[in-house]
């Protein structure tokens, strides 16, 4: 019989590159007691049909994995190589010990930086100490691939200032972080979504990230059924600012899980 698998997206981290609270800051958000105002660096976990897919090994990946109780991964997808998105890569090693090498998916530009930043993985120069074990896959915008038998992943290029970044579509879920522009072909590729996780740094304009007004412009163009804003700075306070968003748009927060039966 035909099986309907539930898609589950868990926000492991929803903060900007400094995290929230920010070191040394005493603003209202950074001193808030609301757990939704405590934001680790951005990452999500996609679970579907028995597969577990991590998007970005954030600087806080170890803490996120322990908090969530992560037991296994089937693949890791990289959006781009800024520090807050990639510097946790070494912490996949305990999973390697148990399950062997993990598929690591990134675009050609990101692979240049991954091989430079983590040269010790690809050109070992010493013995002793475990190394992350990865199987390199290069993704191309608009070229879908499958992980397992039922999860189709489509890389979709967005622009982060001047840097091409990969958004990823998983069936009718999509994750698009660290962007200031969505080119028209990518807008076309992001139609018909149930769930969109979308970059939104703050209320004020920013040169390399979406801000609230710009993010909502893209929501109008894409028309997802539900939108969750992520990569949030300490300018945003969850409870205070939730009422400022329209219906079917909300701030994501660490630990939030979104499901669908599609």
Question: Explain this structure to me?
Answer:
The chain is of the alpha/beta class. It is globular and about 55 Å long. It has helices at residues 61-68, 83-86, 93-99, 108-117, 119-122, 184-189, 212-222, 238-242; strands at residues 7-13, 43-48, 51-55, 75-77, 102-106, 134-138, 145-147, 151-160, 163-170, 173-176, 195-199, 226-230, 249-251, 257-260. The strands form 2 sheets. It has a 7-stranded mixed beta sheet with strand order 6-5-4-3-2-1-14. A 7-stranded mixed beta sheet has the order 7-8-9-10-11-12-13, with no helix packed on it.
Segments where pLDDT lies below 50 for 5+ residues? none
Strand order of the largest sheet: 6-5-4-3-2-1-14
User: What would you call the structural class?
Assistant: alpha/beta
Shape: globular
Helix content: 10-25%
Q: Tell me the total number of β-strands.
A: 14
Percentage of β-strand residues: 25-35%
**Span from first to last CA?**
16 Å
- Total helices: the number is 8
Provide mean pLDDT, rounded. Answer: 95
Largest sheet: 7 strands, mixed
């Amino acid at each position: 019989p035909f099986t309907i698998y539930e898609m589950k997206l868990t926000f492991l981290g929803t903060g900007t590159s400094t995290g929230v609270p920010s070191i040394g800051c005493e603003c209202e958000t950074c001193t808030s007691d609301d757990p939704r105002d405590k934001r680790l660096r951005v990452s999500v976990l996609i679970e579907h049909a028995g597969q577990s897919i991590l998007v970005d090994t954030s600087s806080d990946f170890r803490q996120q994995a322990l908090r969530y109780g992560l037991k296994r991964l089937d693949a890791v997808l990289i959006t781009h190589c800024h520090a807050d998105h990639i510097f946790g890569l070494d912490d996949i090693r305990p999973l390697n010990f148990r399950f062997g090498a993990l598929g690591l998916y990134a675009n050609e530009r990101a692979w240049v930086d991954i091989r430079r930043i983590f040269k010790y993985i690809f050109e070992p120069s010493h013995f002793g100490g475990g190394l992350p074990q990865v199987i390199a896959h290069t993704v191309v915008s608009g070229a879908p691939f499958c992980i397992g038998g039922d999860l189709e992943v489509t890389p979709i290029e967005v622009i982060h200032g001047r840097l091409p970044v990969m958004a990823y579509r998983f069936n009718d879920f999509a994750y698009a972080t660290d962007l200031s522009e969505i080119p028209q072909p990518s807008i076309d590729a992001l139609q018909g979504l149930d769930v969109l996780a979308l970059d939104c740094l703050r209320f004020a304009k920013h040169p390399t990230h979406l801000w609230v007004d710009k993010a909502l412009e893209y929501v109008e163009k894409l028309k997802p059924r539900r939108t969750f804003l992520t990569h949030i700075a300490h300018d945003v306070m969850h409870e205070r600012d939730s009422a400022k968003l329209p219906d079917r748009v909300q701030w994501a927060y660490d630990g939030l899980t979104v499901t669908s039966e599609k």
